[in-house]
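Quick question, first post here. What does this chain look like in 3D?
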Amino acid sequence: MKTKLVALALVSGLVGSVSGQVLVTWDGINGASIPGSSFDSSITAGDLTRGAGLNQAPGGNFNSNNWSPSTTDFASAVLEGDYIVFSFSVALGDQVTDLSVRAEIDTTGSGPQTLAWAIDTGSGFSQIGPSFDGPDPGTIITADTVGGPLTGSVDLAIVGWGASEDTGRMDIEDDLIGDSVGIEVSGTVSAVPEPNLYGALAGIIALGFAAVRRRRQS
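> Answer (accepted):
Ran it through. Tokens below.
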């Protein structure tokens, strides 16, 4: 089996380096569902679970099989339920920006050969960034920028397709950051700006443009 370290960057608003604190982690232990651990009072951790198409496979880590050999792309894999999903929710009045997520995964040769990150904020999974197939051990995969702060409930997933046998496996490992942790979500939590703040900022910008125009005219 080959170990792959993959990372996702969801940069909200500004393009740049990802910053923020660890918000949620999930252990890479095996089971039907694994509860997350939250490290911010505004974040409620959900469970690490499997899509409807997958089964729990034997092993010490969060191991899954029954990846369908008939799936050929992201859409068919989502429709088949061939994904690992983990979720969290943001408290009312707060938002998360500069979101990043890392996961250490392990696949077998007959397991899913192509993977992609996905996000669902209430309207179904959409792919984040390009798909990637079989990176070398320790490879870091970074997704494209996603615009807008995140509020409410958020589902993140690793979607897989292209398995050669339904006995092929993929699991979440347990030593991403020390013992047991397999998935880590980081970001910056802040209050959602009030609408009148946006109006005030727009007014300040308009006054600035007017002052510049007056100087040029004089």
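The two ends are 73 Å apart (CA to CA).
The helical segments are 74-80, 195-217.
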